[in-house]
Amino acid sequence: MPPVISTMYCRAAYKRVAMGVHPDRHPTGPARDVATQKFADMKRIYDILMDPTQRQIYDAYGEKGVESGLNVGSLLKTPAEVRAEFLKQHYASQLQVRRCLVFLCPLHSRVAPRDGIP
Fold this sequence. Notes:
The chain has 118 residues and is an all-alpha fold. Helices cover 65% and strands 0% of the residues. The chain has 2 domains: 7-72, Helix Hairpins; 79-108. The radius of gyration is 28 Å and the shape is elongated.
């Protein structure tokens, strides 16, 4: 399904098709078994398309992504969230480098010497 299809359209299509393959409409025999299987498949697909998180995974990775149990992670964040996360990690690593330099080379640090120790 294209990602632009609305949830209202999905709901209406599900109800229309589900009425034809519902197991209660097929009394006995192999037709009921086939209908039960088709109805279970349709329900699983409907649940995926109606859940925004699962729909996002389905749109990005397809049915295999949903079956594998992927979670919405850094690949599915907005560009602003990715940039903020990058800057946070970048500044944290820069701070760690500066602390190492201050420890290893106190003469090159911007910190004023204390108690006459250079």
